[in-house]
Amino acid sequence: MSWFPQKRESTWLQRACEAVLSAGPIPRHVAIIMDGNRRFAVKNSLAKSEGHVKGFDKLAETLEWCLDLGITEVTVYAFSIENFKRSPDEVNCLMELSRQKFARLLQEKDLIHQHGVCVRILGDISRLPSDLQELLAEAVSISANNKRAILNVCFAYTARDDMCMAMRDVADGVKKGLIKKSDISEYLFEKCLYTSHCRDVDLLIRTSGEIRLSDFLMWESSFSCLAFVKVLWPDFSIWHLYAAILHYQRNHGKIQIARQNNAIERQRLQRESDLKCVMEEEEEDKSGVNTKDNPAGSSGKDSPSGVAEQKNVQSRVQHYKEVREKRVEEFLRTVHSKRKQFWTSLALSPSDVTLKPSQSVSVC
Ligand code: FPP
Ligand code: MG
Question: What reactions does this protein catalyze (predicted)?
Answer without folding.
Answer: n isopentenyl diphosphate + (2E,6E)-farnesyl diphosphate = a di-trans,poly-cis-polyprenyl diphosphate + n diphosphate
